[in-house]
Amino acid sequence: MTEQQKVHPVSDDFAAKAWIDKEKYQALYQQSLDDPEGFWAEQAKRLDWIQAPTKIKHTSFDSHNVDIRWFEDGTLNASANCLDRHLATRGDQTAIIWEGDDPNESKHVSYRELHAQTCQLANALKELGIGKGDVVTLYMPMIPEAAVAMLACARIGAVHSVVFGGFSPDAVAQRVIGADSKLVITADESVRGGKQVPLKDNVDAALTRPGTEVCEKVLVVKRTGGEIEWKDGRDVWYHELVDKQSSDCQPEEMNAEDPLFILYTSGSTGAPKGLKHTTGGYLTYASLTHQYVFDYQDGEVYWCTADVGWVTGHSYIVYGPLANGATTLMFEGVPSYPSHGRMGEIVDKHNVAILYTAPTAIRALMAHGDNVMDSSKRDSLRVLGSVGEPINPEAWEWFYRVIGNSKCPIVDTWWQTETGGILISPLPGAMDLKPGSATLPFFGVMPALVDNEGNLLEGAAEGNLVILDSWPGQARSIWGNHERFIQTYFSTYQGMYFTGDGCRRDEDGYYWITGRVDDVLNVSGHRMGTAEIESSLVAHESVAEAAVVGFPHDIKGQGIYIYVTLADGYEPSDELKKELTQWVRKDIGPIASPDVIQWAPGLPKTRSGKIMRRILRKIAANECDGLGDTSTLADPSVVDELIENRASR
Ligand code: 6R9
């Protein structure tokens, strides 16, 4: 039997205690499709509304008029739902367990403390002139203040835009400008794997770029006490301003469709898009999926290893768990520091019941052999989760056997920044698991497969993954550019949301995501547009032209392979390769580090001048025998040249 055919049935014992078993899933899923209004009206009751919604669903995927509204006459406050409403019943319960990069550093923040800190920062934000509708950029380490900052924005109706702490000054500048952001919240430095990352220096550099003058203030958390520059009048120490504030701040009454946050993500073309997420639908969806997909039970410690800079951190470290009154663990460091056993050691130290991580992290550990987890027992684990990219069956089985001691179901959760929450995933008490498959849709989600012409495919089939109707967690627009939103997601296939992913559906109706079908790379679960990397490269004086493709990489899933045509007067050299590598890292961030650079005197192009990436991908993957039809190339001989000089790795 190949790994792909293996099935791990739901255990009766697990199903008996789970929120959702097979029958419940079938019944609720059917109901969610037959009567979406009734189903979601009921689910919305899990939140505390100021004005309960009476209008539930108003959505159109028609490409002439994409309009998505949920609970549109309801009002609420997201931070009140994550904090205030828990105070009476669980004020002293731990909301956030923080585990520092240094294994000797950790702390517990109770719901009462988190509430007080959030109110204090909310009052401080007001003092800085921030109010409803203003955009605040967060560029922060994985410390509780990151969650506090998100919740404080939500409390006063400001919109947060979190920028991943591994991104470059240019990325920060681009996002500050794109969202007209008046304030940046950062820290002096972050600490990861024993190394300092100069966040404040990066913000300083970002704010020298033209257009960033909109940003008036920088609020700085003292994390390490490292040396930083200080700009009087602009920079404000977090502790100096926040500690003196009142811990009482009335939450702002927000409409369900008021924006909660913007989050930038890469697409196949152009600059990263700022996806706009709103309040009522997003929070309902994040909270519901967190409870059911992870089968979260009251009192359990739940750990999502993502960074808050990604959507996974938004929905499944902060909003979902806190709306549910969960204890959520936040880890500052990396799984390999101080040793590769760290993840298991954290599980033991904090009694983690649910561990949600990424295939790239699993593969990296797996490369060190089964003994890598010997320093921990991991007996507390009950459910495992995977997100960010397809998990290969070998990594799935290793995760199950070595990390989960062969007793924890794995939920392979497929979703996107655009979807706000998990759309296709097992519910651990309801689905028999097939390693490598995200299995079946969540309540209210209608996935479908279409061929390249947009024809719906029935039964077992492979095609492009689309979603036929809206769900409450869906992004409503691209910040400041609704036309681009429509263009990107709703115009490829009429009346459908196009995910950009390819997918296979098997005879049991299980979905198997095969990866992106557009020019988006997925490197260690991080999305990057090939266009972004190419435009960075051609900005270097030595580069005449560049083409970027992904290739299979054992740990990262996909690696970055770059073909460079040099400008006149430049000669290939190892020094130049190093320089270009540094250039891209500095421009976009270390996650965009090229794995391979190949000099390409010419690139394969059609007669109309389009680069044939299909061919470049094959050469990068060393599949030079199956190049397919090259007869439409303007100059087929460039292909032979590229194969001959294929970079060795
Ligand atoms: C949550 C998140 C989205 C893209 C998505 C797909 C890939 C995510 C996956 C998966 C296979 C899974 N992806 N989860 N592919 N199986 N369980 O990752 O959001 O950063 O926007 O990336 O990631 O290709 O389209 P985001």
UniProtKB/TrEMBL annotation:
Binding residues annotated for ATP, in chain numbering: G388, E389, P390, D412, T413, W414, W415, Q416, T417, D501, R516, R527
Gene3D superfamilies, per the entry: 3.30.300.30, N-terminal domain of ligase-like
One Pfam family cited in the UniProt record for this chain: AMP-binding_C
Stretches assigned to the AMP-binding enzyme C-terminal domain: 532-610
Domain (AMP-dependent synthetase/ligase): residue spans on this chain: 84-467
UniProt KW keywords: Acetylation, ATP-binding, Ligase, Magnesium, Metal-binding, Nucleotide-binding
All residue ranges annotated as the Acetyl-coenzyme A synthetase N-terminal domain in the record: 25-82
PROSITE patterns: AMP_BINDING
Residues binding CoA: R192, G193, G194, K195, T312, S524, R585
GO molecular function, one term: acetate-CoA ligase activity
Reported modifications of this chain: Acetylated. Deacetylation by the SIR2-homolog deacetylase activates the enzyme.
Cofactor(s) of this protein: Mg(2+)
Record-listed N6-acetyllysine modification sites: K610
Catalysed transformations (reactions): acetate + ATP + CoA = acetyl-CoA + AMP + diphosphate
UniProt: Mg(2+) binding residues: V538, H540, V543
InterPro entries in the record: Ac_CoA_lig, ACAS_N, AMP-bd_C, AMP-bd_C_sf, AMP-binding_CS, AMP-dep_synth/lig_dom, ANL_N_sf
E.C. number(s) listed in UniProt: 6.2.1.1
Family: Belongs to the ATP-dependent AMP-binding enzyme family.
Function description: Catalyzes the conversion of acetate into acetyl-CoA (AcCoA), an essential intermediate at the junction of anabolic and catabolic pathways. AcsA undergoes a two-step reaction. In the first half reaction, AcsA combines acetate with ATP to form acetyl-adenylate (AcAMP) intermediate. In the second half reaction, it can then transfer the acetyl group from AcAMP to the sulfhydryl group of CoA, forming the product AcCoA.
Protein name: Acetyl-coenzyme A synthetase
